[in-house]
Design a protein that fits this description.
Blueprint: H1 4-27, H2 33-51, H3 58-68, H4 79-93, E1 107-111, E2 118-122, H5 126-142, H6 155-169, E3 176-177
Antiparallel strand pairs: 1-2, 1-3
Helix pairs in contact: 2-3, 3-4, 5-6
């Protein structure tokens, strides 16, 4: 169970500190602000991959991020890195877009070779995905910050809960899936 009140103070402090930093950068006309933003993207991409147990080439990530932010002409030669950075960009730029549902047969997060497979998680059966997604989408819309009828929850907490909830319905890194149509 999530208790928004328990985290409210810390999340508000984080937003305040972020605002102060952005204000200071703007006030002093810091020329390398784009460079700072790019490096933050690089660190997030590296950390995201590390969570999945992957180690990315730092220069490939920097190249891909620079391309996505319009700071370089060519993307990274590593398509996997470009895909991760593209997902990050989509999440950043499309964070206010209305979500809709997709459909996939049951997916599993599996590791290990043949005869040594270990199933870490099995997503809901495809017959349940539509209902689960409807519940998730209803919650997502009910907690939208721009809705005047509801106070909305902290954006950081909402993003974390949305990610966790969506991942339980539709896991990200899947080693085995059957007839998955996205």
């Amino acid at each position: 169970m999530f208790d928004a009140e328990t985290l409210a103070h810390e999340l508000n402090v984080a937003h305040l500190q972020q605002g102060k930093l952005l204000g200071l950068l703007d006030a002093i006309g810091l020329a390398p602000a784009q460079e700072i933003g790019r490096e933050l993207w690089v660190q997030v991409a590296m950390a995201t991959a590390a969570i999945e147990g992957e180690k990315l080439n730092l220069e490939a990530v920097r190249s891909s991020v620079a391309h996505r932010l319009g700071l370089a002409d060519a993307p990274s030669p590593d398509r996997h890195v470009d895909g991760l950075v593209q997902v990050m960009q989509d999440a950043t730029e499309g964070c206010r877009a209305v979500l809709d549902s997709d459909h996939c047969d049951p997916m599993q997060i599996v590791n290990g070779g043949p005869w040594r497979e270990r199933v870490h998680y099995t997503a809901p059966a495809s017959t349940r995905v539509a209902d689960e997604m409807q519940r998730f989408l209803a919650w997502f819309e009910a907690t939208r910050l721009s809705r005047a009828s509801l106070p909305g929850m902290n954006g950081i907490a909402r993003a974390a809960l949305a990610h966790l909830w969506f991942e339980t319905i539709h896991p990200g890194k899947v080693s085995r899936a059957t007839d998955c149509r996205l």
